# Entry
Amino acid sequence: MMNTTRVRWADLRPLEFVERLNECPIVYLPIGLCEPHGHVAALGMDMHAADAFCDAAARAYGGIVAPTQAYHIHETGYHARWLEDTVGEHNARMASIPPHVFCLQYLYQLRAFANAGFQSALVLTGHGGGNEHDLQAWGDAFAARFGMPIKVIMEFELAPGFPGDHAGRYEVSLLWHLKPELVDMSLLDRAQDPAAGGRLAQGENAGEASPEYGAAIYAKAVESLGAQVQALRERAAAATVTPRIDHAAVEALYAELRSAAQGWTTTHPRPGQHAVSDDSQWKPYEFGV
Ligand SMILES: [Zn+2]
# Structure
């Protein structure tokens, strides 16, 4: 009988893996990182959200959750000015990697999925703002080369009616619901204290957060994932995935993508975005590759 409680690749024995794979050959890749989410919330907010939604989707609709990708694209391009504005020159305590490093690892993750027998991948990122467009473009390039459909979803897309934010009412509520021990609202006013690190990207309306609001976001998002999984399964049914992808094939695709890196969303500021100050710690990353 199929194991419906353990849905993590890392937690399944080989027979259980095959049973779940045969039942629903979809893999979920949760992606997040550590970055400041104000004083009230833990640094790993985006990762915890991605983990929770992928686990819930696999339990409700089938499939297997891949090991979490817990380092993400930050600092570069449009991120740089945002960091100057919301974190300034404080230490961001951030676990991030540049886009080309992410891209190469991501292609190898997708290769691992195809080689393990999956027919499609649902990539769920808790960190958005533009990187999700690069993830989808790289996923589309992988699909065009190797046949496996890839759907990238930014978490905020899943709960219409609940406006996404950064460490504001939406995110703090969601984390409060998912992991109450990681939220401490008594620390809210530290955002006004430069000696405490300033805002550290805390949202203006973080004080309006509640676990009930977070529970409503979570319920809506899990419900939305049902249609996403169904759509992806239908695309996969019409696809033929390359049975064994080798390293050389991945490196060839990466070389092509890397040669067009200046066109990636994460390698330059948004149109019209203010330049990063010359003396800011974030200046070196403004046009990062
Ligand atoms: Zn976040």
In short: Residues 37, 45-46, 127, 166, 171 surround zinc ion (CB under 6 Å). The mean pLDDT is 96.
